Amino acid sequence: MSALGNLLVRLERLSVILGCIALFSMMVLITADVALRYGLNRPFVFTRDVVGLYLMPAVFFLVLSDSLRDGAQIRVTLLRDVMGKRMRAVADVIGDLPALAAFAVILYGSVWQGIEAFARDEVVAGSIPWRVWPSFALVAAGTLMLIVRLAATTVRAIAAPDAVHEGTTDAGAVEALEVTR
Amino acid sequence: QEVTLRMGDSLPVGHVIAETATKPFIDRVESLSNGTVKIDYFPAEQVGKAKDFLRLTQAGLIDIGYIGPSYVPEKMPLSAVAELPGASKTSCEVMRTYWRLAREGGFLFEKEYQPNGIRPLFVVALPPYQLILASDSVASVDDLEGQKLRAAGGAQSLTLEKLGMVPVRMAPPEIYDSMSRGTVDGALLALISVDSYKLTDLTKAITTDQNFGTIAVAYSISERKWRTLPEAVQNVLGEAGDQVVENACAAFDEKEGAASSAMKAAGVGVVSFDESGTAALQAANASIAEAWATELDSRDQPGHEALAAFRTALDAVRGTATR
Amino acid sequence: MITAGILLSLLALLAIGTPVGFAMLITGVAGLWLTVGWQATLGVLETTPLAIAGTFEFLTIPLFLLMAEFVLRSGKVDDLFRVTAAWVGRVRGGLGMATAIAGAGFGAICGTSTASAATLSATSLPAMIRQGYAPSFAAGVVAISGTLAMLIPPSVAMIVYGLLANVDIGRLLIAGILPGLLVMATIVGTVYLLALRRPQDAPSAPSVALRDRVRMLAPVGPIVALFALVTAVIYLGLATPTEAAAVGAFGAFILLAWCGRLTRRNVVDALRRAAHGSAMILVILLGASVFGYFFALTQITTSLVDGVGALGLAPWQVLVIILLGYIVLGSFLDQIAILVLTVPVVVPLMQSLGFDLVWLGVLIIVTAELGMVTPPVGLNCFIVARYAERPLGEVFRGVLPHIVAHLVAIALLIALPGITLWLPGLMK
Ligand code: NA
Ligand code: NA
């Protein structure tokens, strides 16, 4: 199903753009806050809340899956360099499947907490009562994309172990998902 | 039979709360139970950040967690009533009042601790916060206008705003650097905390006997864990908790007085509050409490009820103390 | 039993090339599940993601990475290293030495080793490789020079230690200056010796006339101004060190515009690379944090230190054993995690043996710093490998001589406490 693969890549691209916007906004917002505090003694009251609740989780979680596709994850490659392709595929599955399970638990937890925060209309204390639930939504969205990406990689590693590239998960993973359909 | 409980908090080793309340509680529990109840203590964020202890206690990663309304305002908005500025004058007043409300049968126990599945074993509140200023040119309330002060957010920040000051938020480790370099002109802290933040040499002026809010925390056990404990153990924990609340609050107030005297003796100035200054502060505090309660009411939380319950309990505490 | 099994599983996963963050996450979850059960594990996994990503102070990582990306795309880094090459390039290994000096200079701005390593990776590494340096040699210098940021103030590690051990932070920060310069000198000396032994690894640049060298200084002005901006913002108290990261990134953004390179592509690429790098570090910290819960609950550190205390050894023997322990911990744990796990037990023990806690703090941090560059988990090496797009093994190989030299520097700091304690002694 190339539609499914395309959809994931498109979603990742969109969410990376949102993550980048969050990063840029964070830079501008904090700089403006510092300038206003130092120059006019009138800082924004909301900087820390907005950065901690929304912008930081957006920067980290919205690019998570894309960074994995990009092969940005750090690994010890000493043994890996001497492994055959099939061995590598096995090693990838050994690492990725339990990681997928752990992230599935994180997804479950963040969805559940987000729903509770939404239902109870949870807010932080202060002059502006910011909503808490979007933080969990960002974690959930980022983790969900990561899980789908890991699933695609694992399916590929099992279906076509000879085609494994150096990254656990790279652009090829989605095509592999398509191959198996 | 022997029982071992895991207790976690975020306090750095040697923190005044740990020394005055937490460790005495652990010792008390061991001695009252003749060593059959042991507490494994994990301080300094070893098993979680301050914000996480409510969830981690509920989940059972730890049995007793350091749970404060200012860390989880979204889960325990009502408990923040104990941290509102202006209400009380001493650590004992805040701690006894909060303990009445948070312990079994109290207003906050029913409205907030029970619904969150936890039960406080003892509460801690630092002596009411004062202004800690790096400049000795501040002598009266009028000089406070425009001063940038580190505050913990929430009601503390609102008080400063109302008085024409500028609240700045930062993590505790950054206070020292920021104050020494002038990023902020001072901080809101209990006087007993000045030394532990290494601010003694930087402090040039303080307020005394004011209340710019405080921090209230309840070391709590999950209800689920509590029910598994034998009655004898429950009794030991209850007795130790009562004793620690009394002993710790007296110790806090004594140390606060000593810190204040030591600073004055070292030449630290005291900001004087004339009649109009005191009136302005009281008006600010009253309007913050009112706004706090109204905001909660608007979200279907009993804000005004909590405020009334706190004031009633505070009056009762004062009545007992003077008798 | 469980503990040994979990530690072995961690090593096995790392060995077969599982991403480091994943390996720590998986083994941490398994360990927690086996020791405290499913509910408690769920609690940890529910709180940890936002405990890291929602912490305001953590923003230094994306923003310092972003600053480096903007500076890199402004083209001024190339100018900087052309000038450095002109001035010190004629010396064998001159650019390597310049990297160590730049690492110390950048360390005076930046409080975390990883951010410094990332910046140096983005700036001096390409310049050295372009100069014809052996990639492993260049990567090694960058990885070790990054660690200077934790020693030279401002330093997040020092502040954390000061709060954990209840030691005066001002004295601690001042105490880091001379040891920081000593470590810098050690790196410079190591580079000199390495270049002497294998000249082909560190080719010297052609000699440049003095007039030209002076004339080349002009384009470097803006980049020096940017570093000065960040330094001034922190030291003049305009902002907290955390906020300074944002101001620095913004300054670098202006620099990009000033150099006429403010294209959509440049900005988007810089943002994306900084965000990718941050996500990578997030995954490692997420894993390390979950693993840290398990590790704390096992109380390994407590029993270890208690055991040492019971042996009845001479104080200096205990010190050496404990520092060796820090090297071992550093090989697979994050710096801050190490401090958090050990300081509460090590400091009371060492205090009872009569050691100065400021001196001890500097020693612990210098020693734990080694962990940033030792396998299997060496965060600085990971970052350099990622930025240089070189195999990790090559980076670890390049840093090996520096590890040996670093041990000599640590021995000096132990033998001569005055290096550490002289400057703080002048306070008051
Ligand atoms: Na530094
Ligand atoms: Na290491």
TrEMBL record, chain A:
Physiological role: Part of the tripartite ATP-independent periplasmic (TRAP) transport system.
Subunit structure: The complex comprises the extracytoplasmic solute receptor protein and the two transmembrane proteins.
Protein name, entry field: TRAP transporter small permease protein
Keyword Transmembrane helix appears in the UniProt entry: yes
GO molecular function: transmembrane transporter activity
GO cellular component: plasma membrane
Main location: membrane
Presence of keyword Magnesium: no
GO biological process, one term: C4-dicarboxylate transport
UniProtKB/TrEMBL annotation, chain C:
Superkingdom classification of source: Bacteria
Chief site of localization: membrane
UniProt domain TRAP C4-dicarboxylate transport system permease DctM subunit: residue ranges: 7-419
Pfam families: DctM (PF06808)
Ranges annotated as spanning the membrane: 47-72, 137-161, 173-195, 216-238, 244-262, 274-296, 308-329, 336-353, 359-387, 399-423
Record keywords, A-Z: Cell inner membrane, Cell membrane, Membrane, Transmembrane, Transmembrane helix, Transport
Example GO molecular function: transmembrane transporter activity
Topology relative to the membrane: Multi-pass membrane protein
Localization, UniProt: Cell inner membrane
Membrane found in the keyword field: yes
Gene Ontology terms: cellular component: plasma membrane
ATP-binding keyword on record: no
Function text: Part of the tripartite ATP-independent periplasmic (TRAP) transport system.
Quaternary structure and interacting proteins, as annotated: The complex comprises the extracytoplasmic solute receptor protein and the two transmembrane proteins.
Family: Belongs to the TRAP transporter large permease family.
Name by which UniProt lists this protein: TRAP transporter large permease protein
Species: Acuticoccus sediminis
